[in-house]
Design goal:
The complex is a heterodimer.
Chain A lengths: L3 H11 L5 H13 L1 H19 L26 H24 L7 H7 L6 H19 L7 H15 L3 H12 L4 H29 L1
Helix pairs in contact in A: 1-3, 2-3, 4-9, 5-6, 6-7
Chain B lengths: L2 H9 L3 H23 L2 H17 L9 H22 L18 H4 L6 H20 L2 H12 L4 H8 L3 H20 L11 H6 L1
Helix pairs in contact in B: 1-2, 2-3, 2-4, 3-4, 4-8, 6-9, 7-8, 7-9, 8-9
Classes of the chains: A mainly alpha, B mainly alpha.
Amino acid sequence: MTNFRDIENLSAYLDGQLSESESKRLKIRLESDAELASVLSDLSSARSILKALPKRKSPKNFTLTRKMVGLKPPLPRTYPLFRLATIFATLFLVFSFSVNALSPYVSFSAPQFAFGYGGGGGGDGAAAPAAEEQPMTMMESAPAEEPSADQATEESLESQKMTEPPVEEQRQAEVTNEAVFSSNLIYAFLLISIIGAISMYVIRQNAKRKWQ
Amino acid sequence: MDETALINSAQQGDLDAFNTIILHYQDSVFNTALRILGDEDQAQDAAQEAFISAFQSIKSFRGGSFKAWIMRTVTNACYDELRRQKRRPTTPLEPETSDGEEIDSPKWMEDKNMTPAQKAEADELEHAIQHCLDALPNEFRTVVVLADIQGMDYSEVATSARVPLGTIKSRLARARLRLRECLRSFEELLPQTFRLDNEKSR
């Protein structure tokens, strides 16, 4: 009875994969063992039939196109620079624009103005403490002498003028506060973004054309 | 063809160099896929997939037998296709005459050096062998196709199939025995020159 180990060895023997000594031993056994010789013949015939199988010519060329393998045209070394500049310019543009748009609603320096100047630039909230200060000033000036009612009114008006900043100044401060980034800077960012985007497009198109 | 230079260029992304390699190996790759899958259309798809994936992963090739490496990609593509078939089995449409008889495969009609009798003989042989190959488990079929049809040595087959050398030896022996058994049932269908008994009596 031929065991599987022998069959394995016979198959390897056919392919010349046995060592010289193993081949010799197998040859001696084959001469005396008819069953082993029959198995070898079976394996050999199966092997030769497979080898005789006609080789087909491939029905088409399998050559690849750049599209098939997802290759992109090689871009010049300056391309990443343009890309970086465009990205940063766009980010700054969005940031500066947003900050400027939000500045009327958010007070950046209100506390300083409120305590120092009477809340000129602080908007409505900052103006309140200034108004509260007014009676204090009046209280301070009261004990010095006892002026008449008219004098008192005049003085109070004057002191009011002193504590409250002029309307024009107030408005100016508001305007300064609104534009955190100057419009020139925003235009510059916008220009860089547009030029960068156009340059990237042109570079890509040129690379594509050259590649094709 | 300086294969090493072409491989190096392909590893740098040179598609033209890789296409030259494809032209050299495409017949072997297609035949391997055809024998593993047993269907020409599927074999074409698998071969194309194999070449695409080979180009995309060519940087991972670290020397050795390039044929074994490319055969590994095609066997992987074939296994993917077989897994797909298992998930979504389909019935192939065989070309038939108006009487409902199967039309002879046109591939033999294309060979002008063959007589009609030879064509029929070769066709019969091919059908019988393919039938027996299809009956083998996938891993046995792959090994026997690579070793006996592609003529690769054991170490190349081991690289392609990603199994140890000892496993190749054992699978090949089992596959040959099973094929022998299967082909025995087709004895009378096989052309005279390929009768198994002939070899025995020689």
